């Protein structure tokens, strides 16, 4: 009787131990251990790469990393480099501008367990970085060219003045020509009619 009880207790203990071991194995699945840049980091210098370190070795064939800016652009153009549990993704081309970025990853451990996740970091303006130059108040080329656009209006005014002067001169010339003809005509009439009340050619002046 005691032997049966002891065997039952031993079996229960073994089952409990195996169950605990199973839970430990399940809990030991791959997880992200550290990252650079770190989660919620506020950086003054833009990173050139994102480095993720996991609790287990990563399968290089199933490793994906993206670094997206606020407008949705992905700044990781090449496949990440995997070295055991460490994954490195180069960022570029070009330098990251200030703003918030989201790191997204999906990896598969060597035991076939997939892991996905994401986090954000922010690039702030450096204290020594000069502020952007103010908007220029100088006229743009189009504004500088604006006076030439008003030239036709001035040209029209000048043309109108010249036309008026020509018309005035023509009218004055016509009036002067008409007056000259009138004077010549009156002179011709006066010469043809002779002086008023002329003496009779046959009359003796002495008789008057």
UniProtKB/TrEMBL annotation:
Its main location: other. This is Copper resistance protein CopC. The chain crosses the membrane at residues 159-178. Pfam families: CopC. InterPro entries: CopC/D, CopC_dom, Cu-Rt/internalin_Ig-like, Ig_E-set. Residues 29-123 form the CopC domain. Residues 1-26 form the signal peptide. GO terms for molecular function: copper ion binding. It is found in: Cell envelope. PANTHER family: INNER MEMBRANE PROTEIN YEBZ. Residues 124-156, 184-208 are annotated as: Disordered. It comes from Mycolicibacterium hodleri. GO terms for biological process: copper ion transport; response to copper ion. It comes from the Bacteria. GO terms for cellular component: cell envelope; periplasmic space; plasma membrane.
